Amino acid sequence: MTALDANGRKAAARTVARGRTLWTACAAHALHDGYTDLIYLLLPVWQAEFGLGYGALAFLRGLAAATMAGLQVPAGRAAERLGGRTTLALGTVLAAIGYLLAGYSAGLAGLCVALVVTGCGLSTQHPIASAAVSRAYQDDARGPLGTYNFAGDVGKAAIPGGASLLLVMMSWHQMVWFLAALGAVVAVAVAVFFPANLRPVSLGKKAEGRASGAHGGFPLLLAIGILDSSVRMGFLTFLPFLLKEQGASLSTIGSALALVFIGGAAGKFACGWLGARFGVLATVLVTEAGTAAAILSVLVLPLVPVLALLPVVGLMLNGTSSVLYGTVPELAPSGRTDRAFAIFYTGTIGAGAIAPILFGILGDAVGSHGAMMATAITAAAILPLAIALSPRLAAKASAHAPVTPAD
């Protein structure tokens, strides 16, 4: 065998391993995000079944979100000790067990236990799968990370949508058991196909210096991610009320939200690749300035133009996130990609849970239009942060060079 043939085989094997890593991560992301948003479908079912008030329902949703957000960093640490494949497979099984328990619940206490178990399992996916895709593709990871993020939106649409169809044919207990079985299938796929070696890579001195020099950029990136998540959740909180004020029916409001989510899925897929093509700064400036302008347009336009604009709003709202996720590996403190993703997701998921409360309090004080305008101002506030981040990314790019791992 010639050296050329050997190199060709190695390149082919690397391509296969990359593809296997990406699509397994996408499957896990779709399932976990689908499990997360399935709760929205189940809340009215639980309200009717157990006679729960809105406060109790809000507590259930917050409990699952808080558990998932709070355990991102511990999940990353568990992956360092047990390996990413084992941790993600166990987390997927745990999430499925949580829904299995929910099917046996007889009231609020049982649902609380079930959602805490599910939240524990869901906390493993984002830091581990993101880091795996990042390591598989390295400097070319922006586009694949966009695909990975797009898969999460597919799961958000497919699993609650499929569950609503299953509810026509079976009880909600049987439906969650069926989806728990689906989780077990995905867990087996993770155990078989996900890469085993996800432990931190030993870096040479040059790489360590580069990672250390990028450290100053990570807090800025995290701040941008927190504000971006806050804008997205604040907008979605008040959009139904604005549409209702314009005379939209409940079915129209549902269709409007679907338009936003469709645009959001497209934004996550496209902007990851656009970030790789045109750079982080240009993409973030366009998406955040576009978000602010689109939100202000929603405030002043009549209903029909607003509906036409909503897919573009969704694209802008969600597009930034793919660019930010793709930048995490570049600015990970000390090169610890798993830990950086865990911290980043803790901040963004936590902001997504807290922001609707803060904007809701503001809305009570200044009205829905004033609160929506505050989301546009928050989007505009990201622009100077992105400009401040740009020199750190430029320094990272200028310092980049092939690095041989230390022995």
Automatic annotation (TrEMBL):
The keyword Membrane applies. The chain crosses the membrane at residues 87-117, 175-196, 217-242, 248-266, 278-300, 306-328, 340-362, 368-389. InterPro entries: MFS (IPR011701), MFS_dom (IPR020846), MFS_trans_sf (IPR036259). GO terms for molecular function: transmembrane transporter activity. PROSITE patterns: MFS. It comes from the Bacteria. GO terms for cellular component: plasma membrane. Residues 21-394 form the Major facilitator superfamily (MFS) profile domain. Keywords: Membrane, Transmembrane, Transmembrane helix. PANTHER family: FOSMIDOMYCIN RESISTANCE PROTEIN. This is Cyanate permease. It comes from Bradyrhizobium erythrophlei.
